[in-house]
Structures are given as C-alpha cells and as structure tokens.
Amino acid sequence: MAKIILTGDRPTGRLHLGHYVGSLRRRVELQDSGAFDRIFIMIADAQALTDNADNPEKVRQNVIEVALDYLSAGLDPERSTLFVQSQVPELCELAFYYMNLVTVQRLQRNPTVKAEIQLRGFSESAAEGDTTQRAGIPVGFFTYPISQASDITAFKATTVPAGEDQEPMIEQTREIVHKFNAIYGPTLVEPEILLPDNAACMRLPGTDGKAKMSKSLGNCIYLSDTADEVKKKVMGMYTDPDHLRVEDPGKVEGNTVFTYLDAFCRPEHFEKYLPDYASLDELKAHYRRGGLGDVKVKRLLIAVLNETLDPIRARRKEFEARIGDVYRILEEGSARAREAAGATLDEVRRAMRINYFSDKELIETQAKAYAQKQ
C-alpha cells in the first residue's frame, strides 16, 4: 500500500510557532525524508467559512498568508502537493455520502466538536445537545468531522500528522471508513495519526502562559514576525510569578520560557549563545536552585527563536515578491488534488452502485432484460 500524508490548516490568519512545532516543522521533515509516496497539504478555506460566512474576504486574504507560511517554512511544491480545499469539489460530494453513516448523537459526543463550539462562545449545554441552546450553531460545526473524514479518505491518506487535540477527529474518520467498507465493500483506507515526538510540541502555550496560542488573545509569535517583534514578545513572556529576585529558586514546570526552550533549543545552541552551560538540563537545574535571572534565559530563547525564523523570513520575502507564482503553485496543486480525489470518488460511486453512466455492464444487462420483454 502506498504511504500517503494528508494534513493542513484552516486559513484563519498567519501561522504561528504553535503551528510550526505542532505540525509544520514535522511536515517539512517528512517531506525531506522521502519516506512517503505522496504528500497532500491542504488550505482548508471551506472549513474556515463555517464560522466566517459573513466575512469571506478575511478567509480569501488568509489563504495567501498560509500559502506564504507553508512555502517559507520549507514545503516544496515539487515534493508536496499544496492545494485549496474549495477548489476540489469532489470533497463535498464524499462528505455528503458520509453524512448517512454518522448519527447526530455521535457528532455531539466528539470532544473536538464540543471544544470548538464552546471556543466560539456557545454554552456547554449546547455542545451537549441542548436544543434551545443549539439552535444558533451552524451545521458546519457538527459536520466538521465528516468533512475532515472526506479530506483524509479522498487521498487515501495512511498518515495524518496532527496535534493530540485532533485524535477524536481521526478516530471518527476511522469509524466512517470501517462502516463504509462494511456496507459497500473494501474501498477506503483507515488513517493513523502521527503525533509530535516532543512533548513540548504537543500544544505550545501562548506567550502569556495560557494553554493555547490565539490571535484573539494576542499571545502568538508568528512565523513572519520580525526579530524585534520576537524580542519584544519573549521579554514579556510569562515565567514563574514567585521568582521575584535572581537569587530566588524558580519553577521550570509551567514556565513558558522553558517550555519554548524544550521545543526549540538544541545542544549546539549553548556553545553558540550561552557557553556557561553545557545543556538545557544544566540551565534548568541552576534556575531551580536560584541564582539565575529570567532575563538571561529569555535572551537565550530570543537568540534560538530568531535563528530558527531567520531563514523562514528570508524565504517569505522572496515569495512575497512572486505572489503570482504562489497562486500558480496553489492552482497546479489543486488540479493534482482533484485528480487524486476524483479517482477515489469514482471508486466510492462504484462501491455504492451509483455509477450509472459508467457501468456498461449495468446498461447492457438492463437493455437485454427490457428487450426480452418486447
């Protein structure tokens, strides 16, 4: 069986460090490894419209922002197919068929659906199925897992690199695949999730220490931030509120600066930027026993982050000067994605016995049967 990756992002704004360590960096590594036969990376604009229906221009502008972040991070359109979800209509048709395989009750139990509903201001009772509270929730919130199953199965993805918050969605995709294959015969491929291998990358906190980076909370460091913007944001980062003096013992656990160092710092960074220490473990030990100030640790993080982001910024500047080429990359990628999704859709139609016009045997058999009645 071919090894295929499908992953992507909703174009809700520029991508930040949480996206980078959670999935984008891994995508580039997997692309460069040559271990997969095909890699599809989707800008999920149709899904973004489920809660931006009144502001389509915002989604439209963010598509190019995400594409620039993809390319500047190192995704290569020659080795990874970059495409726009809305430009592959086959995905909508697959989702429509899958809707018959999932109950409303099952969707309401999906933890990711519950979380998304509450994140956008609806009450917990609405997420649990309270019909009075549920009335104002767009259908797209409930069908999001079905749409995602369509995206994954359309390309027969065997692997989906994603954060742990997406595990319920992948599980629901596997349920849909299992049910479809049980009813119509073996057609679809069950995917596996590929989680980040660094615990700190599972869910990078915001600069304010809150559990999730969010544009609305203003706690993000973007891939496109300048060196000065990174410095300002790191210097304002949440640390240990009880570490008031340099000589005070400090806590590393829950300290955002150290969480970022866990995600980005490598052994060679110490020789380059902080030769007084041999490793991150040694730095942490000093912080815990006291005598190490937050500013010194933050300066290390600033150096590490800017070293990571410098080549990304440089590539982004190059692509910003070639926006026409970026759209061409997306258009060509979307055409390749349509071809792959179309082949799967043909198999699905055949399995469901709704391939009326391409089933020559059906036409001939019925023609003979009706001829005999004459």
Give an account of the 3D structure:
This protein has 374 residues and is mainly alpha-helical. The protein has 2 domains: 4-203 and 323-363, HUPs (Rossmann fold); 227-318, Orthogonal Bundle (Tyrosyl-Transfer RNA Synthetase), CATH 1.10.240. 56% of the residues lie in helices and 6% in strands. The protein has 17 helices and 5 strands. The chain has helices spanning 17-33, 45-48, 56-73, 90-98, 104-109, 111-119, 124-128, 131-134, 139-154, 167-184, 227-235, 256-264, 267-273, 280-289, 294-320, 323-351, 360-373, and strands at residues 4-9, 38-43, 81-84, 159-161, 192-194. The strands form 2 sheets. A 3-stranded parallel beta sheet has the order 1-2-3. A two-stranded parallel sheet has the order 4-5. Helix 3 crosses helix 15 (294-320), helix 9 (139-154) crosses helix 10 (167-184) and helix 11 packs antiparallel against helix 15. The relative contact order is 0.13.
Key descriptive features of the protein:
mainly alpha; 6% strand; Rossmann fold; Tyrosyl-Transfer RNA Synthetase; 374 residues; two-stranded parallel sheet; three-stranded parallel beta sheet
Taking all residues together, what is the mean pLDDT?
A: 91
Percentage of residues assigned to helices: 55-70%
Protein structure class: mainly alpha
How many strand elements? 5
Biggest beta-sheet profile: 3 strands, parallel
CATH architecture of the largest domain: 3-Layer(aba) Sandwich
Q: In order across it, which strands form the biggest sheet?
A: 1-2-3
Alpha carbon gap, first and last residue: 49 Å
Strand content: 5-15%
* Number of helical elements: 17
Shape verdict:
elongated
Taking all Cα atoms into account, the compactness measure Rg is 24 Å
